[in-house]
């Protein structure tokens, strides 16, 4: 879980989960109210977790012939949605925050 750089308090999973869905990278600390920013390192990881991993899984599903492994396409798509949901719920454990906004590149 992220720790505020000002007051050194650790955020809860729920607080982090709610704040991760903002379009900007600024997050307000629930304890002291200071602005915190998602680090560039974390944003790069989030791109990989949220976009690349499901894309790779969908590509694998397209490559694998469904008739060979005898699994219905609906079950494969359901598993894709489950993997994506698991990734979203695990993201708060990987978020790191800083006092200043860092450029992505």
What does this structure look like?
The protein has one domain (13-98). The mean pLDDT is 79. It is built from four helices and three strands, in the order αββαααβ. It is elongated and about 55 Å long. The protein has 105 residues and is mainly alpha-helical. Helix 2 runs antiparallel to helix 4 (73-90). It has a three-stranded antiparallel beta sheet. The two termini are 24 Å apart. It has helices spanning 13-19, 40-63, 66-69, 73-90, and strands at 26-28, 35-38, 97-98.
Spans with pLDDT under 50 lasting ≥5 residues?
Answer: none
Shape, per Cα inertia axes: elongated
Average residue pLDDT? 79
Task: List the strand order in the largest sheet.
Answer: 1-2-3
The main sheet comes to: 3 strands, antiparallel
List the helices and strands and how they pair.
Elements: H1 13-19, E1 26-28, E2 35-38, H2 40-63, H3 66-69, H4 73-90, E3 97-98
Antiparallel strand pairs: 1-2, 2-3
Helix pairs in contact: 2-4
Task: Pick out its properties.
3-stranded antiparallel sheet; elongated
Summed up:
The chain is mainly alpha-helical and 105 residues long. The chain is 50% helix and 9% strand. It has one domain.
């Amino acid at each position: 879980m992220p720790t505020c750089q000002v007051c050194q308090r650790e955020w809860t999973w729920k607080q982090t989960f709610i704040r991760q869905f903002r379009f900007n990278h600024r997050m307000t600390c629930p304890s002291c109210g200071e602005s915190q920013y998602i680090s560039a390192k974390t944003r790069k990881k989030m791109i990989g977790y949220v976009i690349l991993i499901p894309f790779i899984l969908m590509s694998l599903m397209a490559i694998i012939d469904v008739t060979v492994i005898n699994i219905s396409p609906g079950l494969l798509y359901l598993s894709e949605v489950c993997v994506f949901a698991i990734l979203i719920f695990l993201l708060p454990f990987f978020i790191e925050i800083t006092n200043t906004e860092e450029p992505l590149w």
